[in-house]
Write a structure and sequence with these properties.
The protein is built from nine helices and three strands, in the order ααααβββααααα. The protein is mainly alpha-helical. The two termini are 42 Å apart. A three-stranded antiparallel beta sheet has the order 1-2-3. It has a domain of 134 residues: hpI Integrase, Chain A, CATH 1.10.443.10.
């Protein structure tokens, strides 16, 4: 709504400057409130994730790399920048843990699921070019260089195009992780811990999709005296 009202004000100012209207009507366009946490997080569903993963040709280096990137996002909820920062020493193969370097210098240890570990191993053994770089994800074409955040962001987008489905971005994969935690009976505190939010208030938006918790606070609809619900 904000872009619409902003565009309308610009149009009215232009019409006034061009002499098409005799007064500037832009001030009468009402402002739109920008409420915090007003949106509803929409996570990618299981079918979309399965389709994205299936679109990766794992017989190629790019396919192995993209498959591992998508799993990190869809299973662990990693941000694109966290995927880009992942280094070889961050993978504890024996302990089954992953060191994640997040916002504000935050460092967390996360469990490494077997399917994610398998995808990483396949990329490192069979896809990644020999390199002195310590970053896990590197370019497959051109100069030997690590993938930047901007390149990681394009991985789910390109997978969506290959699969012929509606665009699924990195944020939708991250939202999916939070929504699954709540659907399985988890709490907002668990969501905050899993998504590595520095401020638990950042997880409050997911209360809107916690249908079980919302149902517990719904009050019954008042009925007028004499109403018969069997009618």
């Amino acid at each position: 709504m904000k872009p619409l009202t902003s565009g309308l004000r610009s149009l009215l100012r232009f019409l006034f400057a061009a002499g098409d209207i005799d007064r500037d009507l832009s001030p009468v366009v009402p402002s739109v409130a920008g409420w915090q946490l007003s949106g509803i997080p929409v996570g990618a569903d299981d079918e979309a994730v399965t389709t994205l993963l299936a679109s990766c040709n794992r017989a190629t280096a790019i396919g192995r790399r993209d498959f591992a990137v998508l799993l990190l996002m869809a299973r662990l909820g990693l941000r694109a920048v966290e995927v880009a920062r992942l280094r070889l020493e961050d993978i504890d193969w024996r302990g089954g843990e992953l060191t994640v370097r997040g916002k504000g210098g935050r460092v967390d240890q996360m469990p490494l699921p077997s399917d994610v570990g398998g995808a990483l191993a396949d990329w490192l053994r069979n896809g990644r070019r020999p390199s002195t770089l310590r970053e896990v994800f590197t370019r497959t074409i051109g100069p030997d260089a690590p993938m930047k955040r901007q390149s990681i962001v394009t991985v789910p987008r390109h997978a969506s195009l290959r699969a012929g489905i509606a665009m699924v971005g990195a944020h939708r994969l991250r939202h999916r992780v939070a929504c699954r935690v709540l659907a399985d009976g988890g709490s907002l505190a668990e969501v905050a811990e899993l998504l590595r939010h520095n401020d638990h208030a950042s997880s409050a938006i997911y209360a809107k999709v916690d249908l079980t918790a919302l149902a517990a606070v719904v009050r019954p609809w008042p009925m007028a005296v004499g109403d018969d619900d069997t009618a």
